[in-house]
Amino acid sequence: MRGVDGRICEEFSLKYYGICTIGGMLSAGTTHLAITPLDVLKVNMQVNPIKYDSISSGFHTLWREQGPSSLWRGWTSKFFGYGVQGGFRFGLYEYFKKLYSDVLVDHNKSSIFFLSSASAQVFADVALCPFEAIKVRIQAQPNFGKGLLDGFPKLYATEGAFGFYKGLAPLWGRNLPFSIFMFSTFEHSVDFLYRDIIQRRKEDCSRGQQLAVTCTAGYAAGAVGTFISNPADNIISSLYNKKADTVLQAVKQIGPLNLFTRSLPIRIMLVGPVITLQWLFYDSIKVLAGLLLYLMGDDHLASNGAYSRKDQAAQLFIYQEFVKLTQSLLGNISGQQVEVSVLNSYPGEVKTTA
């Protein structure tokens, strides 16, 4: 995270990993919170596929029988659980990527990405598992509890500490392949879009085109990862809601074909946008956090308390990059042309024209 002739924070330092962790927590927590109603329906479709046999009828049944508030059951587990998971996932991914790059010098980048994402996901799922155990029960068993505060003590009283990690192995079975295939699909999709569709290098494309490529590749990566991880996701719901006592029993009850197809459409609807938004939010948070850290720090001030010319140039560069990122996001969301007029000294100004 560097500016021109200036440094926001040392790359791969504790501060750098802290920014990555916070960015991962905020991006994952907020995006998963937003799709809680779809997640509630997904869990019920997995646990009771006869009653909740489609997306439209499933929503109607939940609304009619349990009220609109039922669509937000488990939101605290979603926000905090996946926030913690996102922090571990993104923060440790950056750490392991640096570690494996230094150790496995002769290996290609794909191997580094696979190993880094898998290693980070192992720890991320250990952190997520207790929250996931509460969430699935609350969403499929209305009388189990209202949230984390009453869900944690009730689960511990009935099943002990093991109840929080009963689904850890299936969770790894779902998320490890998901992470590996997600990163692989994303990288290959980006290469394909630039090489065969746009037929230009990334550096020669506008920020709007780059954003479109990122979103398209992110959605494709989420969809492929969802299909690969769908069997384990169905097994997790079955175990947590006591439809089966073991993984093998769950597989026999659900059936090989249903493992891949049950709740697959709604999971693709869930995961595709979530993965896309997570990367957008994550990168945006890293840029903003880097800017704030630089402006709040005092280690770059001269002896008289003023900014040096070098640091003024660094500030200006950081500000320009953040404004350009904001320009791309606003332009794609609002459909308006957003023009950036940067002054010769920090800060610049943003003008929006219809």
UniProtKB/TrEMBL annotation:
One cellular component term from this protein's GO annotations in UniProt: mitochondrial inner membrane
Record bears the keyword DNA damage: no
TM annotation in the entry: none
Pfam families, alphabetized: Mito_carr
Solcar repeat locations: 15-99, 108-192, 209-288
SUPFAM superfamilies the UniProt entry points to: Mitochondrial carrier
First-listed, main subcellular location of the protein, grouped into a coarse class: mitochondrion
Any single GO BP term: mitochondrial phosphate ion transmembrane transport
Membrane topology: Multi-pass membrane protein
UniProt-recorded Gene Ontology molecular function terms: phosphate transmembrane transporter activity
Origin: domain of life: Eukaryota
Alphabetic keyword roster: Membrane, Mitochondrion, Mitochondrion inner membrane, Repeat, Transmembrane, Transmembrane helix, Transport
Annotated compartments: Mitochondrion inner membrane
Family: Belongs to the mitochondrial carrier (TC 2.A.29) family.
PANTHER family on file: PHOSPHATE CARRIER PROTEIN (PTHR45671:SF14), SOLUTE CARRIER FAMILY 25 (MITOCHONDRIAL CARRIER PHOSPHATE CARRIER), MEMBER 3, LIKE-RELATED-RELATED (PTHR45671)
Protein name from the UniProt record: Mitochondrial substrate/solute carrier
Native organism: Macleaya cordata (Five-seeded plume-poppy)
